[in-house]
């Protein structure tokens, strides 16, 4: 979907071979917030819907739509972008519902579903989440939380968009954080460790969604440049050898 080089092709082939399930439609960028914005545009194009839910404590970037899905927007950015919503997260140590896990039966996901049904307008394209929250204090969710959100998204017909910019590429002991939960998202966003700190990010969508990449004009001038592609390929090769 943009200019290609031999090294970029090798990197994309390598990345597609190790991503979960049938996540294989890849578009590259330089910053995480670019990839988040593009993932949201892809979700909008595929679903023909425009609303998104994220969580208090999440961090998704500093451009308009991404920061609107980030708690800091409450006091740094003025009004949020239209159609963006925040929900309480599954933070058991400081439960926003003052319940106790596991007796609560992961009540926070039921509350999320109810909030989507009541606060949304019937045009929810996706839920955007970090599998481990970083900005708000390395919040690790309880067992069953992320799989339950996956089931809820399936039930409501909305996309599950997982932001692995912070957690990807073996930072949690597995190549992808979602592998800990046996969950395959509809869209996954990667960065930071993807090229060992070199400016290289991407979003990856399921194969059946790839037609939207042309529809949204997903490419950028510098995303997937030869240096970034070489750094990404080398990083994946080293990780594959060592984990």
TrEMBL record:
> What cofactors are annotated for this protein?
pyridoxal 5'-phosphate
Q: Tell me the GO molecular function terms.
A: identical protein binding; pyridoxal phosphate binding; transaminase activity
Residue stretches in coiled coil: none
Alphabetically sorted, this entry's keywords are: Aminotransferase, Pyridoxal phosphate, Transferase
Q: Which InterPro entries match?
A: Aminotrans_3, Class-III_PLP-dep_AT, PyrdxlP-dep_Trfase, PyrdxlP-dep_Trfase_major
Q: What is the name attached to this protein's record? A: Uncharacterized protein
Q: Which organism is it from?
A: marine sediment metagenome
